[in-house]
Amino acid sequence: MVADEIPGFWAVVPAGGAGTRLWPLSRSGSPKFLHDLTGSGRSLLEQTHDRLAPLVADRLVVVTGVAHQDAVRAQLGDLPADAVLAEPSARDSMAAIGLAAAVLEQRGAEVMGSFAADHVITDPDGFGRAVTEAVAAARDGWLVTIGIEPTFPSSAFGYIRQGDPLAGHPTARQVAEFVEKPSVPVAEEYLATGDYRWNAGMFVVRPTVLLDLLAEQDPTFTANLRAIAADPARLPDLWDKLPRIAIDHAVAEPAAAAGRVVTIPGAFGWDDVGDFDSLAGLLGDEEDCTVLGDAALAQVIGASGIVVPGSGRVVAVIGLDDVVVVDTPDALLVTTRARAQEVKKVVAALKDQGRADLT
Q1: Burial class (CB in 10 A: 0-12, 13-18, 19+), 175
Q2: At 136, is the secondary structure helix, strand, or coil?
Q3: Does residue 160 sit in helix, strand or coil?
Q4: Under a CB-based contact definition with an 8 Å cutoff, are residues 19 and 32 in contact?
Q5: For the purposes of burial, counting CB atoms within 10 Å of the CB of 78, is it exposed (0-12), middle (13-18) or buried (19 or more)?
Q6: Does the pLDDT of residue 101 top 60, yes or no?
């Protein structure tokens, strides 16, 4: 059953980050959420909008950097003029989501949900059902997170440890704690208990509840967010005074310790497309070589992995297993899936060399 529109519910889409592990495809000027990484013909941002629209109609706000606001508006051309909030600089997720919460509080939004612009979800109906359940719990004053059912012992994600069931909400569990990214052996222990979920950073909450939880930890932070929402002309002066901190550390972890967070199970397919190994696994199987882009520009013989021909020239790969080849007009990446996480080191080195033109 497809989830229906949820009255009074607004979606917030933080669209930030440079996706350095997906260089040279993703760069600071054209980050991964603006790219079609699934071959669907829709960017990750557009896909995020597509799965949220049935739940919120036009009640959607995107928070992005000043440099990307025009591209966001171009891809989401039907959004109202006030639906894109532009950050003067990146100050991590609490500032971005907190700004949206303060603006939505001003607009009288009942409940908001924050969903990243650059994730892939393969079961939009299952996603909609989980969000509907999360909104129901959030109306009762809880900070709600959607915990993804782990499919393997990943060391790339944080985890949520589930506690007792929540009365009145059949699928909800109280959150005992948020756990930082573990080692693979520890993650295996987590999965064996059945009590842990991946933390996908999806939060559903009443805007005022979120801001009040933040105020308990940092009242000045909340006061400045509310001041910006009340008078947007103050954004340039107050923005740099906001702390650089993730919403997990600023609100979710202390609120969980105080017993004020619950989680809803998300059994839908989910991937944060963190690197080219993740992307290769998402698009193909272990035996094949996936081509993302114009297949006529790739000649693959006896190879597996992923090839992204993006320069207009032909890329030929012969006899290599689990290879990653990404060809762009000004940069070529060749690595293996096993070492795909190290692409961020290339970006760091280029920045050290002053090559901003390549990052």
Answers
A1: buried
A2: helix
A3: strand
A4: yes
A5: exposed
A6: yes
Q: Is 220 exposed, middle or buried (0-12, 13-18, 19+ CB in 10 A)?
A: exposed
Cβ-Cβ contacts under 8 Å for 251 (sequence gap 6 or more): 94, 143, 210, 213, 214, 217
Among candidate residues 56, 256, 262, the one with its CA nearest the CA of residue 171: 262
Compute the distance between CA of residue 119 and CA of residue 159 in angstroms, rounded to an integer.
17
Backbone angles phi, psi at 32, to 5 degrees: -65, -30
3-state SS class at 116: coil
Residue that has been written with the tokens 């790969």 in this structure: 317
Establish whether the linkage from the previous residue to 24 is cis, with ω within 30° of 0.
yes
The answer to whether 11 and 202 have CB atoms below 8 angstroms apart is no
Q: What pLDDT score does 156 carry?
A: 87
Of residues 110, 100, 119, the one with CA closest to residue 32: 119
Residues 301-332 have pLDDT tens digits of 999 999 999 999 999 999 999 999 999 999 99
Pairing of strands 9-15, 111-114: parallel
Where does 85-244 have alpha helices with state H? 92-107, 124-138, 184-193, 207-217, 219-230, 235-238
- The residue behind tokens 């171009």 is 74
Q: What is the pLDDT of residue 287?
A: 76
The three-state secondary structure class of 117 is: coil
Angle at 329 between CA 328 and CA 330, to 5 degrees: 95
CB-based burial label for 13 (10 Å; 0-12, 13-18, 19+):
buried
Which H helix or E strand runs over 47? helix 44-56
Provide the 3-class DSSP secondary structure of residue 66: helix
Task: Tell me the pLDDT tens digit for each residue of 154-186.
Answer: 988 999 999 999 999 999 999 999 999 999 999
225, 100 in Cβ contact below 8 A?
A: no
